[in-house]
Write a structure and sequence with these properties.
Number of helices: 4
Strand content: 5-15%
Strand order of the largest sheet: 1-2
Distance between the termini: 35 Å
Order of helices and strands: HHHHEE
Helix content: 55-70%
Largest sheet: 2 strands, antiparallel
Shape: elongated
Number of strands: 2
Number of domains: 2
Length: about 80
Amino acid sequence: MAQIEALEGRIERLDSRMVRHAREDETARRLASIPGIGAIGATALAAMMSSPHGYASGRHFAASLVLTPKLHSSGGKERPGRISR
């Protein structure tokens, strides 16, 4: 039981560190303004992204994160759909 409490305390400290870092970092702060992305997700995205200018579009950035749209095809005609969570 004491080991679980120690781990929970460590997780809380790490969470607060990440939130503090997200508030201080300009890129993470801008990413956190996107609906559905919190401080921890914004910090992780900022760490993964080298330079936003290296991507031709948002679609290329999403593909680098392996977020690809669901394809709907019929009769040889491909129509990309939405990106699901």
